[in-house]
Amino acid sequence: MPKSIKLAACAALLSTSLISSPALARHPGKTPIVDSTLTAQQICDLQLRPADPSEFSTFPMNEREGNWERTGRSQLGNPVVPEQRRRVGGGSSGNVQVTNDPYRNGGSPNIWVRASADVTYNMEKLYETNFEVSRTTLFDCDVTKIVGQGNLVDPHGLESYNNGTVELDWQVGGAADRVWRPDGQETDYGQTVYVLACISPNNTTKGKPGEWRGKHDFTVADCERFATMNLGPVPSYNSPDSYND
């Protein structure tokens, strides 16, 4: 409806109301209100609040919607789909069963044996990260009333500008925001591991005469017996799953 006052009498009435009517704005200075708990209409009512029975009413106008932006708050989201898990570290061996199959590890003077063991790994799972976002919609507030036969009274100077409502939401971050979190353990049963059986005198005496040292229930006699065997070197088995405590 066009903003107009058709009759001089209406203009006079409006002039009087602007001086004495309780419809005048009560918010000192009309400082913009930006709030996340109020609607645009509620904010305009707070800004201009025309009192009954003046018949003035307020409404938001000129709405400008902003962009979603992160607030800085985040929280752990759901596991990535499809699920992604990984092992952490080399695992720990238990229930070790030595097979008495001696060999030299990469030509080392020490003697090793193969064994069977249950190897347990710590696990991690990949999760999404959720970020809190906010969007501010700015608007102005106006106050008007209808008099007579549909005549719009729109007193200037009572408007309030750049008020805003704030929406809060959560959005899933991108691939770079995903995080790994502990997710229990996983065991591989009956795996082949490599056990240090004998430490060579060459390691303990640095070339001087000495004795073998048995490890993992192997005796000096076992080591001396192994040493007489034709134990050719094999490729190094110094891998993370070697059982060499």
Question: What would the average pLDDT be, to the nearest integer?
Answer: 79
Rough outline: rod-shaped
Share of helix among residues? 10-25%
Give the distance, in angstroms, between the N- and C-terminal Cα atoms. 88 Å
What's the helix count?
A: 4
Structural class: mainly beta
Question: For the report, how would you describe the main beta sheet?
Answer: 10 strands, mixed
User: Strand portion, in percent?
Assistant: over 45%
**Total of domains:** 2
Order of helices and strands: HEHEEEEEEEHEHE
What is the CA-based Rg, rounded? Answer: 41 Å
| Strands, total number | 10
Describe the structure in your own words.
The structure is a single chain. This protein folds into two domains: 8-68 and 135-165, no CATH class; 88-125 and 184-234, no CATH class. The chain has helices at 8-20, 40-48, 201-204, 220-227; strands spanning 34-35, 57-65, 69-79, 85-105, 111-147, 151-153, 160-172, 179-199, 213-214, 233-234. Mean pLDDT is 79; it is low at 1-29. It is built from four helices and ten strands, in the order αβαβββββββαβαβ.
